Amino acid sequence: MQVETSARETVIDISKVTTRFGDHVVHSGLDLQVRRGEIFALIGGSGSGKSTLLREMILLHQPDSGTIRVLDVELKNISDDDALALRQRWGVMFQHGGLFGALTIKENVGLPLREHTGLDDALIDQIADWKLSMAGLEPEAGSQYPSELSGGMMKRAALARSLALDPELLFLDEPTAGLDPESADGVDQLVLKLRDLFGLTIVIITHDLDLLWQVADRVAVLAEGTVQGVGSMAELSAMTNPAILKFFDGPRGRSAQKQQHQAEVETIDTGRPSSKPK
Fold first, then answer.
1. Region of poorest pLDDT, from 112-116, 147-151, 185-189, 240-244
2. Per-residue pLDDT at 264
């Protein structure tokens, strides 16, 4: 039986975080918790602070006040050695991939292993091949360069590299942005597979409402510097907060809800899940 979210260990604990850029307040006493083993998503309009919050969680920006604990480590004033150790426990897939153009895909995936382990090159190449396979790429993709990949393949390659060090926590920044519907659906399925097979905690920054309906256990809506609501997509869609409603009242929101309803009806009619997992 699945453990209730409220009973799970807290993997990320954000308390009273305030972030300013000059006179502009991005976060104002923001509180948020992510539990072990869940797929947790952050959504919000432009300027809501979701990307800044991601940067703060992965040690790329320091908030002005408040505390952030990741994997039970306080990030404020963290030492260089502790920061290095912590970074090896998480993986990050950046929105535009962040792959090195001069390296092959296999070399990109193997790079974290070469930097942080004493494994020999042959074993690193084997592990890189395995990670690429986990991400749904064929073996020949490893010898290609980033410029030779399609958008969907690029996303999968970046995901493979984020898995190189067997992280327990995974951050995905807009994992389906720019993909066609078929490729995006493949990413949906892959995210669920990784969580279920390896027990990963996954934090997603996204605008993709279809992705949220398919994979997210809980979603936090950011607006006006704070968390406006947290819950499943079904729970959020029933809330009356205007900052939350706007994500469900527009044409994209209504379309995503319609597809979710159709999938649920198909499950009831056939007795088995539709091609969509949730």
1. 185-189
2. 47
Question: What is the maximal distance between C-alpha atoms in the chain?
Answer: 57
pTM (two decimals):
0.85
Cα–Cα distance, 206 to 197 (Å, whole number): 23
**37: Cα separation from own chain's centroid:** 13
35 backbone dihedrals φ, ψ, rounded to 5°: -100, 155
Q: What are 199's two structure tokens?
A: 């027990």
